[in-house]
Amino acid sequence: MGIEGLDYRIIHIPLASGLKTKDDARAMQPPGMSICTDARFDELGGIQTRFPSVMLGNGIFGGGTLSNVRRIEPNGGEFVLFTDTQLYAWNAQMSKWVLRGSHLAVAVDEASRFVTPGDQIDGDRAELNGTVVFAWTEGSGTYLAASDKTTGAVLLAPTLLGAGIVRPRLVAADTKIFAFIISGTTLLYAIVDPANPGAASFTTFFTGVGGPYDAVRIEGSDGVCGAHQRTVTTAYTVWTVTSANVIVTLTKARTCDGPIAIASASANVLQVVRAFGALIQGDIVATAGLGDLINNIAIGTAAVSPPRQIAVAYPTASLAWAFWTSGSETSSLNDFTVEFNSITTSGVVGTQATFRHRLGIASRAFGYAGHAYVWLAFASDSGTSIHGNSSGVRAQLQNTYFLYRDDGTIHARCAYSNGGGFAATAGRLPGVALIGGSTDFAWCATTRRRIDLGGSADHTGFGSRSPRDVAFTFDDDRARRCARLGATLYITASIPLQYDGVQLAEVGFLYYPWYFDPLAVGAGSGLLLAGTYTWKATMAWTNAQGELDRSTTATGMSLTVPNLTAVLLSVLYLNVTSRTGVRAPAIDIWRTPVNPLADSPFYLVSSQDPNAGIVANGYVRNVDADGVGVALPDNFADATLISKETNPENGAVLEYLAPPGAQIIFATDTRIFLAGVSGDPDSVWYSRLRRVGEVASFHDGLTIPIPPDIGAGPITALAYLNETLIVFRAGAIYALSGLGFDNTAGGQNFGPANRLSSVVGAVSAESVVLVPRGLIFKSAKGWYLLENNWNTRYIGADVAKFDAETVLAAHVAPAYHQARFVTSGRILVLDYLTDRADHDPLGWGNWSSWSIGDAVHAAVWNGTYYYLSSSSAAPFQEQASYPTGSVNYGLDVELGWIKPADLQGAVKIDQILILGEHRGVHALRIRTAFDYQQDAAGNAIYTDDVYWTPSPAVIGKPLQVSRGTSRGRCEAIKIRITAASTAKDGTPPTTEAIKLTGLALRVGFRKTETAYKRLPAAQKT
Hints:
Structural class: mainly beta
Largest sheet: 7 strands, antiparallel
Shape: globular
């Protein structure tokens, strides 16, 4: 019987909705929820516990366990996982991860800075507190300039430091930037305040300086150390200077007649490496006082006296690596090398070895994660012939910088095909400096472009050189994005990679054959008719999936021969590649029939049998560690020649080129698309139409310009919708129709770009996913849907509370009509089966949150959803049931404030009636709060908190409970229902526990009065 004066009614509230976090907490209407955790909505009209996930395993074949996991990807029937430095594949038979290769995930961002019409050489940069200072030599003087790192605003316009000023060097210490220059035989310096770079003033540091010098930050100290050659080369000087301008110097009576380099192991030890004729010698000195610790260490020798460049770095506190050029850096066919050796702080020297052939040292060495790295330059002419044979265009077509580690492996690239060549000045290298955290570095490279010179002998030349600001980051997820085309997985990086199930390798070839020389060697058994022939060489490599990767060639070489003449075909090896050993590429050689016309086809004259060897028309395997090359005889008669394979670039076919470095990748069934291209941020590159059995290849003519809208930010993601390419910027969306150019440059390019939105765009490639109704993407304003009709629709109101969290992955779980988004704090789940637009303009589907806070990535493999756990260092596989012991969470829902008599009406709630289904052992926890009471964070302050043990506890039977409240009259009530363990201590259950259908309230209303009057005195006026 009800209390006199109250009219009791039953209010029914179904649990068929999800989160609604954007609503005002007091105004939200049930069944909207402020908490909806570990839920799913597969059975319409109710809410169920999400399925559990079980760990796949983190053991490594051969021993050890995974650590520092970063990303998981399906690769056909294979499942792969990236750590910070490696790529692994899952072996289900062994239940172990098998190492497939190293991947340091280096992302490169580069842009030209302070370009002038002049020839700008010897560039350097230093960065501190958001200010980036640049210096370079141009003409007869050196310039200093500065910009704001965030905005790009010029803080100091290029300022000439004076005529005759050369060899600039910039070094950032803890609080100041040091600038050094040479004027005649005087070394000058300035201490630059990054807050006011224009106030820098240069003063004399040393006189009697011979030219080569080096300077680097002292580790663990707010200062710089350096060493310089003296005009009297029987001695050199080593020095330190602090940001407080405290200078210590000491001259060493030891010969330095060439380059000199210095490295800081710690605040206590410095390593000097210097040239003494062709000898490479080292001295270890104490940082404090600069006294000798060990001197005249024999590190190695060079093939010339003195060597052109020396670099040294301490990757650890006790081990330094020294690198030096041996031989003359030249763009001709003559071989030269970079040599290297190790030196401990105890003076123990390793064994000198050849580091790389035909590459020049382009930067100072630097340390990262226990290894030494150095940027090397490729700058060799194409088509040079020592025998004077005619050729096509001769030019340095492929100038590029490559980042090498001390184990000889290559990990990054910059200034793709437009590098500035070898370092302009002997004994002078730009620095590489840590600019953020422990993984972000930057240096000043140099670029120049090739130009046509119609009157020159070789028809080519170069434009002026200019500074290139190159920032690069190790362990960057932008260099782990993947797409699959054919049977190969493609991976973004500054060097885009292909994975074939066996190893990682570069896509295409980092440079293609650039030297080729046919030579007639006299009468023999050959069957060549008298006349002129043209040959060319290309690289070829078949990956483990049987897909062929090809290169183009730099030039063709022609030779006129008499009858019955054998021809030796000399070609240089490709020295820059990760494909070595028995799986090294082949060098394919092609020839025209006699007296070719301009469009005569080329045919393959070398063998495709790796066992053929160097015999007439044999097989040439690339040897990356050999700087000489090989000569292969060609004896094919034309009748034999024309029966051989034709060159795929015969006719008007676009050349096979390697792709540029990129940070965004997307694949259709015929092409790979790239964006976030290093040095080309406003273009999308796309591959040639892939032929069956081939690796995707690119061409620099297959690009799509994207409007550089002011304020729209960089390109962030690519997708396909309605057979149309979609390009996202941070603040805009574009649609580009069409099929693109074919492999002969026929047809039309994609576009033009149709702007779909200038208001919103995608924050990242990880935030975009295709669902039946369009593309869901996360914008700076929350979650949006780009609908199939090209409209953009805000769908993120219900989860706006989590908008500040970084999105790490987005996938569709096809079995559950759900879009799932891994964020830095949870997994957000959108059940998109239902659309509430008819009564809620911001509503679309039901959102919930999964209590998985350690996920760093996710993937759908063989139809099953996996998330990658950072704490367990392993993927977790979603189950389709609830195996015993697999559940470690409980369904947790909290309704918005229920207001039976509107916002502030007086009611009496005396019963809470819950309906659901019992699914396993648990205790039902019921919490209630009243009258909008919540803490400063917006969390409800519960008045009642009780546990109830379900009865009857029969799986599949209805779960029904009636719960009273401790309050009399109230204006609002908030109810939270949680599945907990039977320990009743707040811990989760180990079973599915419950399904919930809805709840009801028995509410008493006053017949004559509805205003709520029970307010504290302080709330009455």
